Structures
1.
Amino acid sequence: MKDFGAVELEILWQRLISILDEVDQIIVRTTFSTILSESRDFACILTDRHGASLCQSVWSSPSFCVVLPRTARVLLRRFPAHELQPGDVLATNDPWQGTGHLPDYVLLMPIFRAGQVVAYMGTVSHMSDVGGHPNEIEGSDVFAEGLRMAPFKLFEAGRENDLAFSLIGANCRAPDLLLGDLRAMAGAALIAARRIEEFLYDYGMTHLDDLAQTILTRSEQLMRNRIAALPDGCYRHELEIDGYLERVWLRTQVTVRGDEIEVNFAGTSDQTEAAAINASYNTTYATVVFPFKCALVPDTPNNEGLFRPIAVNPPVGSILNAQFPVPVKARAKTTNNLNQCIFGALHAVFGDRVQASNGGIWPFVLSGAEEPYGNYLVDMLPHGGRGGQPTMDGMLPVAWPNNSTITPCEVLETKAPLHFRAKQLWTDSAGAGQHRGGMGQVIVFEHVGQEPMMFNLTPDRVATVPPGLAEGGPGAMGKVRINGEPVERFPPILLQPGDVVELCIGGGGGFGPAHLRPHDLIARDVDQGYLSPEQARAQYGFVASAA
């Protein structure tokens, strides 16, 4: 095997990442739905010829990148490398073989050199609609949630699979968006294949095996070294989360033993048929691994070598290892809290790379038909405040543990009959602490059209508070109002013209005891409107001096 020096390895690795960043930008420019072109709910991943991930684009959604290698191996068992040809694109959206729910399509394109497969370009993308009932949370099984495609060829030798495109398009509400996005993702993968071929030519390589082995081996050893530096032991944490209508528990035991870690979730609530909040193993595994990557090797580009020392064992039949065919469409409502389980268990040994709970992600979809918009379907992925950390306050609303961006209000107003009255920080929503949580936000919009509009919302932390860490206080619990009336159940809601929706998305929990927060920082928060004088007194015992 070729021995790569540190400088050479960095140059080669960074060029591969830059290729994927180019693919990322192509996807943003060529996809049709707002959840891809604006919210960036997708990932671009390069694997070796065995399906092990080597690198990703910088903006890729982290959990997608961890799942992709697992799905790649499923696809390659169905379509072995020796049966593939240039221009083939393999695909599936099966929740148990892919990323956990039907809207996520995984695509895999082989990359050839001298007639041999040398790598694969993978993409994962959240599609706006894949058919099924319109409900996001309520549901009894996966069959009702949309069209489930077992591994198949989306393209064969560069030609569209007419039957697959016809079947997919006939089973969704927005075929132009879905089929256009699938074509865009495949087109972006084709550009990636060309760029990797150029990469190999430029460096006189006939394959990527040596480079891939170096990346994976060194990354695995680095993660093992970081784990070995942690004190051995069993660390536990439990967390009550919303569930849906009935709250559920996540119970975690993290065992550090030498240079390996096992995460066990014995005692976690059972899977349910009452709501689509169940998670398949793949999405649980990916969401659990990510906090370790952030805390232990934050500066190393993501690749599969980093995951190898970490075993994740949720009980079969639990909400974190749900079995077919339970509903899974809103699985992120459960898994987005898993980082807090890991940080809650390990904050005493992870040092300053932990954070308290956040206000959650509140995906919503608006759809209808009206001139001049035609048949419209738009998405937004707003977040609450981030949790406080040992050395700093929590961030203002920003994606975590996802890597999505917020669709601008102005974009949605051009694509659907909407008027946003407000999008602002939520005073008094941050959890108190030595380092307070990040502020939540308030979003208010009005239906300004003439025809009814379908509104689907998946809120979080509306039944339980975002907890703090190390004696930090909780963030504010979320609230939903329509025309001033509180909403507590979230089936598809038919908005009438003139209806006004108000979303109050919670703040992050605080870190450390509130009495240790310096008075000048409390005064600054009051002055900037983050904290009211009343809550400054209640949370910190702070009384502002008269001006």
Note: The first helix runs from residue 6 to 30.
2.
Amino acid sequence: MRFPEELLLLLHSEESGYFVAIPEWRMSCAMAGGVLLDLSLENRVDADLDSLVLVDPTPTGDSLLDPTLEELAREEKVRAPRYWVERIARRADEISDEAIRRLVDKGIFESEAGGFWTLSKKVTRTGHYPLVDGTAGEEIKSRVFRALFDGEVPEPRDVALIGLVNYCGGFRAMLEPEEYEEAEGLIELWSGMDLIARAIAMAVRDSYLPPQSMRAARRRPMPGVSLWDMIRSKSFRSGNLPKFVAETASELGPVFRLNVPGRNMVVLAGIETNRWVAKKGRSHLRTRDYLEDFQAEWGTARSIASMDGADHFRMRRIVRAGNSQSVVKDRLDEVFALGRRSFDGWGIGKVLPGEMACQRLLGEQIAPLSVSMEPSGILDDLLKFEYRALLVHGHRMLPRFMLRTPRMRRYKKRVLELYARIHASHTPGQREGKRRDLVDDLMDLHQADPQFLPETDLGFAFIAPIIAGHYLGSAMAFAVYELLKNPGCRKQIAAEADALFEGGDPAAEDLDASATDATRRFAMEVLRLHPVIPVHMRTAMNSFEVEGIEVPAHSTVLVAFPATHYMEEYFPDPETFDIDRHAEPRNEHRQTGAYVPFGVGTHVCGGQGWTRFQMAANLLLVARHLELELVPRDYRLKLSSLPKTCPDRNFKFRVTGHRHPLEPAT
């Protein structure tokens, strides 16, 4: 194991699912120092406080070390270790990415959605890393902490590692103040014994940031787009915000300002900014601010959507099982039965409001699966209240009194009644012998830690999946539209559905990748071309630099993650609906940071597996049973962009007949 790998393991926090908070420049210097230490142990370099000398330029065959070795070989002048630490620190992201990949490959780290990393169960259970080169290594924290708290003399390699962590500020970040005070003497003793670690100390001593000469060369002024430019844009006027942002980014670059009176709004749009948010957004972007008033309207102080850091990671782990696709797979028979019941209510010949019909279809499935009760007619009221609350608090487009009208008060009363019904139905006695659901997990957390999840926050947590289902319903509405506009795709999906349903309803394992190939790729293309959430709004809690532009603290940051879906360089002819993008040899969706329908960063949708599977199941069900037509037949899609992107109210369809009866085959 190399020093950068061990450094990450030592600084990893199981509580937050990431690494302890250290200023970025200091962490970059530590990663650079780790590479130099490894090159020293490989007898490629030799160093003292004043100079670092290349001893042997022969490649090591290690992709973590050889890029630095090549840099050293190209430099004719002898430089001090500090110079090389600063120079290599520019590639710290590449070094850390490679180190994390290795830790995953070795079975030490496991990745989780949102860019979180946890130690594998085997490591946490045994206290040792899996076999590497025939030996099992003892967990790094145990070794280092014995040297710091028990007085055990560390191995020379651990001495160097202690110096790396100390000089980047790692021990102060990972230890409680009293623990650091207890260990400080030994930390300083061991840290002073390694020359390269001392060089790192010199590199970071005076600043939390890279040297000014390195930053000034990269930085450039932030371009801006005026309100008039926005209004003149056909894409903006049509409600296609991802396309508008993609067009603007192609002209101004991936970071630009919206010059809206009274608002300091910065847009991040592009594959590199998506990757930046995924890696570093957690240290610079805060979610809470724009959700506070919205959540208060529902009677809650905070939710998983507004949590950041360790609290958000903890909550994600609690709700992971209840939001996973295994819930849908385990109860696929119920999904099919509920879907057919909705189809029966649609009737034949009746004109249906497209988006509302699809939201009811999905919502009537999600509620029983997530909270173990049918919504009993409350879905429409819930949707209307959410819609108004987002316009008032999320987008600031309506005054607050618009949530105090008699109709909105009635809707809110029904929402509060739903809270109470769900709560009352999840007592131990009521739940005995029943399938465990998301609410059971939330109730257990509330009982175990009522401060972290108080009773005042339970209600909104209960119905969050139902609210999220409205967004899935909008995506399903786009899918129905594309089915009707692309008869070739519809024929392929119908063929897959007929093969699966011919002998009766299929089991979850029957809906594998080969049996649902066209359906799966169709759903992927719907999510690419029609992202329901066009932007994530964040607050810059710390200033940061991305793509050579500095974004000041307190800025409102619009992470326009799906703008890449409309960029020609990643998706040729991006406005064309083409499911072959997602097949060999094109595989356009596999470009990291380009295909991101579920968001980027720590708040990436935790229910994306559920979404993909439920959407595919319903597409198959529609294709199996229903003959549909647009109303009018020549309808062309128009968008409504607030409070989310969805088909406009003129999108309607009619069931003209049934391809197969609304009963499962026997």
Note: The two ends are 58 Å apart (CA to CA).
3.
Amino acid sequence: MLNKLLTEIKQNRFYINYSRMWPYVKPIWFRALMSMLICIPIGSLDAVIALALKPYMDLVMVEKSITSPWYIPLGIVAFTAIQGGLKYMSSYLSTWVGMRITNGLKFDLFKKLLTLPTSYYDRMNSGDVVFQFNNMADSACSGLLSNLSVFVQRIFSSISLVCVLFYNSWQLALIAVVVLGCAFAPVAKLQKRIKDVLQKTVHADSSIITAYNEAFNGNKTIISYNLAGIETNKFQTILANIFKLRIKMVQKTQWLSPFMHVIVSVGIAAAIGYGSHLIMTNQITSGNFVSFITALILLYTPVKNIGNNLNEVQMSFFAIERIFEKLDMVPSIRNKENAKILGREHSQIQFKDVFFEYLKNKPVLKGINLKVLKGETIALVGNSGGGKTTIVNLLPRFYDIKSGSITIDGIDIRDYTLESLRENIAVVFQDNFLFSGTIKENILLGKQDASEEEIQKALEMAYLKDFVASLKDGINTQIGERGILLSGGQKQRVAIARAFLKNASILILDEATSALDNKAEAIVQMAIDNLMKDKTVFVIAHRLSTIKNADRIAVINEGNLVELGSHDELMNIENGQYKTLYNMQFKKQELDLQVK
């Protein structure tokens, strides 16, 4: 049975994954070892009470040859006190070691998370990420240390108690050991039965985290559309699903405890029955029998309750397996060996026969060919969903192309290091992400070691200086999570100031003003005009002046580059797509501006 259990463990990679925990244990191996070694006397001392009962029963209760020996009860109290102190030390060391290992795993998981491409985040929801990259580490380590401690205690407790059994009666001890083996027989097969339930439970638990995140981030939408009832029903469905999974887990595991109760009661009954015969035939004394029964009960008690903590054991195994699956993930977008460093200067960027798809066999870009010279501004226009944003997302390698090439100075961007490539590209999105903290902390993300003079220059060029001066705490004002305390225009200008400090030679503006009102848009546009100076610019925008003033305009329609030229050149194409777009969309804006 033992060999079968070991084979089962190895086949399920638990053995391999536990061995892979060693790098996390190695720096703190001494404390980890001590936490385990302390468990040896904790378990072994369980036999003291059972062993002490033999002379007490024989000399005092049966023969009544001496008065109650004072040293036996005092010895029991002393040994119990020692055991209690050791348990405290073991608990402290186990918690200390467990937290250090947990933090090590979380640190590596977080580093891995930051290397994963945008496509990974497209497929995952926030609950899955939080649960799999954070909560799993807690489940793995708390289960690992607590179960190892219990295992060591139980092993040495069992060894010492079995020794007491054989000391008192080898015949009764054989009965006890056989019954113990029968009680453990179902455990080896239980893991397979609950693995699927564990997987579904993990997904369900992550759904709760997602629900809370959506309630927090989407609170205005929920309120404005009166979605409280719908969201409540969705959450109730999640809770009902978790309830069913928890009940299913109980159904699959908790039968083990009553089963073991029955098996153990058979062992105790057999020991009592056969023990009575041995006493009557003077093969053992009453003291032997009482000592034996006490040791047997101490041995069987944790066995009867094994079903209660089996879920935690299996969750620990499952979590460790999932953790190393995550750590073994190889990012699809990564540096090549001997990748080149992209310098601060470049002469041209070229898209050559670029094909791209988010979903297999559903192309988004179809053979894009485009050459952009240093200092040139290229505006991308076209119908929604045509592929404009996809083109600019490929340049910093948020995604990798399916075929073709994107080169900077004739070298494929996949041959440059990701760090140097992205260091030379600044992106201002339509909805820029601001981190919780101060305005200054968010601006300094563009350049961590920026001087005070550089910061003030960035504030001035982003038209933030007057706004910052009006705040009580100035540039050190807290802006809340995701910059919630700032208006849309203010958030855009903070992002522009950040891009100013980065001072990258390539600038991407992805509809940076489309979500703003006219007044905020005008201020942000002035900041953008400052930012665009002396840079190679890719701009997706709806504002007329930005489009008209671009060196060239690329019209993207259903993944194809259908027209390319200056505003005047494209307007001269009879029935051209740009001209049609202009007449439909931009001319109205021009008339509105004239009216104003």
Note: The mean pLDDT is 80.
